[in-house]
Amino acid sequence: MSNYRTFYSFLKLMAVFTACISVCPQEALAQTGSLAASASPRVAGNSSRQPTRESETKSGITVLGSAPTTVEEATLFSMDNISIPFTTNLVLSMEPVDKHQDNPLLRRGESGDPDEWGVQCYGSVIYHEGKYKLWYLALNEEDMRNMPNDVHYKGGQLAYAESEDGIDWEKPNLGLVEWNGNKNNNLLLMDPSTAHGLDCRVIYEPDDPDPARRFKMVFHMGARFDGRPAGAPIPFFSADGLRWKIAIDAKLENYTVASDETAIPPEHFEMGGLYKWNGMYHLMGQQVTPFMWLPDGTDCGRVLTIFRSPDFVNWSRTKTLSFVRDGTRGEYRSRLGNEGAQVHQSSTWDRGNVLVSTYGLWNGGVGWENVTIDLGLLLSNDGLYFREPIPDHIFIERGEDGEWDQGGLLMSQAFENIGEKTFIYYGHWDPRTGQDYKPRGGLGLVTLDRDRFSSLSVMNPEKEAAFITCALKVDEPSDLFFNATGLSEDAWVKVELLDELERPIPAYSGENAARLDSNGFRQHVSWQGNEGIEGSSKPVKIQATYQGEDKKAIKIHALYVSKRDNAK
């Protein structure tokens, strides 16, 4: 256990990145050749000599392991302790979400429909061409009844729904695939036609020079490794999101892919979040022993790992152990493997300089009847190592027995900011039924006020309360916005800019400091004589000091630094 806890602490440290418009974790400005102060001043070995830093030399080795992220708008969530690493007298609180009163918004079909048995929202939602578009798995009764005895991972057929407002969803008649003697359904055309699966993650890249590859999907399909049924991610391309073609040279036999034809090594991998980071495609998923173990060789239950690809076709043979819940233990495919606190897959919202993920809080038990799943929340600033803002925080709670989402939840890669709300979609699976597959599913929705996942507020109103962000390299004129509540004449925030060494910049501090006393999702900050942040080759930090007799009422949820031509 001590080795495990040491490793878990190591994962948290590795997550320390930066948030530079170039968002620069711990001031590691690799793009400019500037090297930040180390998170630890200790030098390898027994030497007591301090390492030579950029201030002492203009040449040397620049370590790019935590290279900055350059974006048109940087989002600094209050729950992101890499983007906001320095605080005093502040407390982090996670804000509650609201389940939509009409859940599930998309329901199972009628008898004879392709999704009569289940609407499995292990899927994706993308806003495209004025509509919210959903890809999900349609489960029919015959396939699901035969699933444990036939091909364990045959799963369902890829289906599609759309919405004008993100709430009212329709299953359009696409006329692409024959089902029960006609094509009056919402099934998507697959090549090969026998492609079935249990999970799909879709991204859209309008700038791909090949129009046939602008929609990209990883499909969780059946595979056989050493004669045993397993699951593997298979990449697909599409020009319109409706007609899909397999992206690798693989043939299906009885709905499964041969072990030597899968995109990743022949390992059981239950995929999750799909995103592109620093030019590489990343695919998260869960694995267990014997396909993954802790660094010291200890067996483990469900943990998150990540594979990578430069082109979406050729995927890495190596992987990253991305996240481990405290207490994870277990043997693969055994009763013991269901016990303890484990990780059940993930989904990812790419916000440019930070990734926000929902993941399954696997609450284990000796048998399937004792397993339940809520959804937790993760963050990453480097695309590899994820962490919880507050360990074991339940972000979306499973329903009570008798409710549509009882027992367990599934995460969809489905996050949208719509007006003044953040929409997060999810699915349902009650694991307590074990391998006896029951009719299930639907599209659930939770909302929270736009980007208000969390807040930083004053702990003790009698003392100073403030935070300082990580270094930001703002090389073009940009604007700063606060997402805040609780502000008034008696509760306001003093906003200043500091240089890289945290010295006040005169034009943005002291008597020229900005005063923020109005609530809003995107409150613009202006200084005396400066409407925004003028571009500079030198990095800056933002300092926010809570002020006023009623400063305990202030809640700061997020900051945005946006290029002026991008600011809204």
TrEMBL record:
Keywords: Signal
Top-rank lineage group of the source organism: Bacteria
Record bears the keyword Chaperone: no
Database matches in SUPFAM superfamilies: Arabinanase/levansucrase/invertase
Stretches the record annotates as Disordered: 40-61
Gene3D superfamilies tied to this protein: Glycosyl hydrolase domain, family 43
Annotated signal peptide: 1-30
InterPro entries: Glyco_hydro_beta-prop_sf (IPR023296)
Coiled coil spans: none
UniProt keyword Nucleus, yes or no: no
Full protein name: Glycosyl hydrolases family 43
